[in-house]
Amino acid sequence: MKLANSVQDHRKLQSWFDQQLSELPYPNSPRNRLACACFDMVLEHYKAITELINLRLPGSAFSLSRLLFESCIRGVWLHRCATDQDVSRYERDKFDKKMFELIADIEKTEGFESKMFSKAKAQTWKSLNSLTHSGYEQLGRRFNGNIQEPSYTESDQINMLNHAKALAFIAVYMVSLVSENSVLQKAIDAKVEQEL
């Protein structure tokens, strides 16, 4: 698949997500607001990655990959695992749990026993940090031979879009759980079958 076609496909999916979530009510609580705000950040980062790749700014797109992953993890943790005291600390920016702790807590809950987040972190965390913090994963792609210009392969960019899409699906599904909307859950399940 060509990159331009992939970008268009991702934009269509993002529009579908927006339609599904438009004015979706959910029980109003600090926990739900924070979790859904994290999931909204996942979707915003997904859109930003798509548009930055379309604008031929892949370095900036790739630098968002860790933020996307972290937003998804934090949202799931806030919804599934956080105590009321954790939520209160989070609201005051006094939150100090490490990513591996959040993931370990999540993977003790129903639906996450497969350890998909810890596997993903083990495979990608070093690269995600390097991409976000201008490490060699990022800087090594800033040259095309002796010319300084982005040299991200089309395949790498499509893979980044697909990584973002997978996390966006998790985020949208989690919003459907927060909102207790079984119709949306079924629609997402059907869309996953088409897209992933």
Which key phrases capture this entry?
mainly alpha; two-stranded antiparallel sheet; 196 residues; 2% strand
Description of the molecule:
With 196 residues, the protein is mainly alpha-helical. The protein has one domain. The chain is 72% helix and 2% strand. The protein is built from 10 helices and 2 strands; from the N terminus they run H-H-H-H-H-H-H-H-E-E-H-H. It has helices spanning 3-21, 30-54, 58-63, 65-80, 84-91, 99-106, 116-132, 136-139, 154-178, 182-195; strands at residues 143-144, 147-148. A two-stranded antiparallel ribbon has the order 1-2. The chain is globular and about 55 Å long. The protein starts with a helix and ends with a helix.
Overall number of structural domains = 1
**What portion of residues belong to β-strands?**
under 5%
**Continuous helix count:** 10
Largest sheet: number of strands, sense, barrel closure: 2 strands, antiparallel
Uncertain residue segments: none
The main sheet orders its strands as 1-2
- SS content category: mainly alpha
**What's the overall geometry?**
globular
- For the termini, the CA-CA separation is 15 Å
Output the helix-strand order.
HHHHHHHHEEHH
Radius of gyration: 17 Å
Number of strands: 2
Report the average pLDDT across residues.
95
Percent helix among the residues?
over 70%
